[in-house]
Write a structure and sequence with these properties.
The chain is mostly helical. 74% of the residues lie in helices and 1% in strands. The model is unreliable at 465-472 (pLDDT under 50).
């Protein structure tokens, strides 16, 4: 077996950070559990450094060809680890010196580890193991506050996760029976000649589990409840990081294991993309709670991201645009949640009245992130959406690109419903709604907002230079 632990340094760093953090937390007093936070951040930094080094190496498969280290894996590693650092930063004001602070950081690292394993998995058995590792810690995080909304959210999240986990296992079992293997490379050769009905059942079962992980239609029901019921740092992490690995895992599955099967999975994914973006936007129109609005917003973003998956074998633009969009979505979504975390006493849209006057920096970040989620230049999501629209047209799904443009224009309405009150004068009696939580959530907000702009500007310059180099 081609064992090479050196190829898994980012993953091993997270394992070490989680295990050592749990051991340290058992002995440290409550006031010194920040050491575990520093250890978790160090694990992420070590993983980022190892990922940068791995990006310069040739792609490889390790441990019996079950885990792939290639461009997609390294890109997701970088995005997940950077997003985890941001999530740790915006959580400090909430969990600092709490008696279960250590558990929070350990669960976050394990969830990030499972997310990375999802995208590197090239075997159905490793895929389901990664699914469980990316799910169980998040169930605990959803109920971390141990209050009524959090407990309800965790219960719904867990029950739906168990249901679709079983469906995923059923799908894997059927695909194994039909294809005689669990490795993607072998399935790509055996599934095209297997029973059409068995392949269809297996594909739908596996996709059901991964759709639950990313919060796509029709298994999206948990997203708004968890986003509203969990603490803001948990909601930020759960609605951002698992989606990165889940979407990349779906891409690898369909591109490497199912490219020639009889099931018309591109049409199926396209329909799921259309349903996710449309339902997410329509439901967000009527939301007044800012976290619930962001929950439905993430569902709509999944729809746009699935567009790249739908043309995975039809367009060369699919993978690079998907990876860039994932990075853009991560920093932009986390930036919006960081502003919400910094203003914990403002749960409603109307509570943000006067934000531009009292906290102009936070108002600027909120405007950048919300308009970024719409896809407004020069933010990073604009380039991401532009890329997936181009990939869809290149992959003969022009109708999906047209629907996505319509949804993008429609989404501007509910984002503006949130932006507009920030520039209105707030009555004196409502001034206490905008009391900031502390320093670290603001740092995360400014960092994420800046990253969204930098990615957008840098990406735009890269595209312009690339286009210029093609001119005679």
């Amino acid at each position: 077996m081609n064992e090479n632990p050196a190829a898994l340094i980012p993953e091993l760093a997270l394992v070490a950070g989680a295990v050592l953090g749990l051991l340290l937390g058992a002995w440290l007093p409550r006031q010194r559990q920040w050491v575990v936070r520093v250890l978790a951040a160090t694990a992420c930094v070590v993983g980022l450094a190892a990922t940068v080094v791995a990006m310069r190496s040739a792609p490889e498969t390790v441990f019996g060809d079950s885990f792939v280290v290639d461009t997609a894996t390294n890109a997701v590693r970088f995005i997940v680890l950077a997003a985890t650092l941001l999530a740790l930063c915006l959580s400090i004001d909430t969990v600092d010196s709490q008696h279960r602070e250590t558990e929070f950081y350990v669960l976050v690292q394990l969830g990030a580890l499972g997310t990375i394993m999802l995208v590197g998995a090239a075997d159905l058995l490793l895929l389901v193991a990664a699914y469980l590792l990316a799910s169980l810690p998040l169930y605990a995080l959803a109920g971390f506050a141990k209050d009524s909304p959090g407990t309800e959210a965790a219960l719904k999240y867990y029950l739906m996760g168990v249901l679709f986990g079983v469906l995923m296992l059923t799908g894997i079992t059927v695909l194994y029976g039909a294809g005689g293997a669990t490795e993607y490379a072998t399935l790509a050769r055996t599934l095209p000649v297997a029973s059409h009905a068995a392949v269809a059942v297996g594909v739908i079962g596996v996709l059901a589990g991964l759709l639950f992980k990313i919060g796509g239609v029709p298994v999206h029901f948990w997203v708004p409840d968890v986003t509203e019921g969990a603490t803001t740092p948990v909601a930020a992490f759960v609605t951002t990081v698992p989606k990165i690995g889940g979407l990349a895992a779906i891409y690898r599955l369909v591109a490497e294991a199912l490219p020639a099967v009889s099931v018309d999975w591109p049409l199926l994914v396209a329909i799921l993309a259309a349903g996710s973006m449309t339902l997410g936007n329509l439901a967000a129109f009527f939301q007044d709670n800012v976290r619930r609005l962001l929950g439905y917003s993430t569902i709509s973003q999944v729809g746009y991201l699935l567009m790249a998956v739908a043309v995975a074998i039809r367009s060369d633009l699919a993978l690079p645009t998907l990876l860039f969009y994932l990075a853009a979505y991560a920093v932009t979504n986390l930036g919006a949640f960081a502003v919400v975390a910094e203003l914990p006493h403002a749960p409603r849209i109307t509570d943000y009245r006067g934000l531009a006057r009292r906290h102009p920096g936070l108002a600027a970040v909120l405007v950048v992130c919300l308009l970024g989620l719409v896809g407004t230049p020069p933010t990073a999501v604009f380039l991401g959406k532009l890329g997936v629209f181009a990939a869809s047209i290149d992959g003969d799904l022009a109708w999906l690109a047209i629907l996505a443009v319509i949804n993008t224009v429609a989404s501007l309405f509910y984002y503006l419903r949130w932006i507009a009150p920030t520039f209105l004068a707030a009555p004196d009696s409502e001034g206490n709604m905008l009391v900031p939580a502390g320093l670290w959530s603001a740092v995360a907000a400014y960092t994420a907002g800046t990253a969204s702009l930098v990615l957008g500007v840098a990406g735009g310059l890269a595209i312009s230079l690339g286009a210029g180099s093609l001119l005679p």
